[in-house]
Write a structure and sequence with these properties.
One of its GO terms (biological process) is phagosome-lysosome fusion. This is Ras-related protein Rab5. InterPro entries: P-loop_NTPase (IPR027417), Small_GTP-bd (IPR005225), Small_GTPase (IPR001806). Pfam families: Ras. Keywords: GTP-binding, Nucleotide-binding. 29% of the residues lie in helices and 20% in strands. The two termini are 36 Å apart. The strands form two sheets. It has a six-stranded mixed β-sheet with strand order 3-4-2-5-6-7, with helices on both faces. Strands 1-8 form a two-stranded antiparallel sheet. It is elongated and about 90 Å long. The chain has a single domain, classed as 3-Layer(aba) Sandwich (Rossmann fold). By secondary structure, it is of the alpha/beta class.
Length: 195
């Protein structure tokens, strides 16, 4: 058995938040430039590779879209492992989705990486706000983070959000890389023939 480091050095971002806050819609807007008003709720995880516009201080990202429904939340902690950061999404028209951020944050910090690197996205900013921006600012101050008000429908701030993430996540160094086990078939003993 040979143990070798994984070669991929692309930081992983997990996207978390209550159901129907628009996590998948944000990613569809980012990756496909499209918005589907009738998108179905996510019931499993999916991931995308994001390559930001070429700049010196950005890096590619591995973005994991997770399920927000209660019955699937226990699976989400599987995706926290080896994550570089979390994008916590709430719906600006839903105070309950904002109130859930503490639970999502605690779950990520308890099951995820050693560093507590999160960024907020207040989605559906094209609609009337029901969440007080002052409360959002206080949450951000408490957790030393930033909030982007996004609209998956219009595309507002979607690209800026992910370029920002690609700049702030730490690069994966050799010491941070998880190890994997590479199994090799044992070589068969050479057969000796007699003359």
């Amino acid at each position: 058995m040979i143990v070798a480091p994984i070669k991929a050095k692309i930081p992983r971002i997990v996207v978390l938040g209550d159901t129907s806050v628009g996590k998948t819609s944000i990613l569809n807007r980012l990756m496909q430039g499209a918005f589907d008003e009738n998108a179905a709720a996510t019931t499993s995880a999916a991931f995308f590779f994001y390559q930001p516009p070429a700049e010196d201080d950005v890096q590619d990202l591995q973005i994991w879209d997770t399920a927000g429904m209660e019955q699937y939340r226990s699976l989400n902690s599987l995706y926290y492992r080896n994550a570089s950061a979390a994008l916590l999404v709430f719906d600006v028209t839903s105070p309950s989705s904002f109130a859930s951020l503490d639970k999502w944050h605690t779950d990520f910090v308890s099951n995820g990486p050693l560093q507590d690197l999160v960024v907020l996205a207040g989605n559906k900013s094209d609609l009337d706000f029901a969440v007080d921006k002052d409360l959002v600012n206080l949450w951000c101050e408490k957790h030393h983070t930033k909030c982007f008000y996004t609209s998956a429908k219009s595309g507002e701030n979607i690209n800026d959000l992910f370029v920002y993430l690609s700049k702030i996540v730490p690069s994966l160094s050799e010491s941070q890389e998880p190890e994997c086990v590479i199994l090799e078939k044992p070589s068969e003993p050479s057969k000796k023939f007699c003359c």
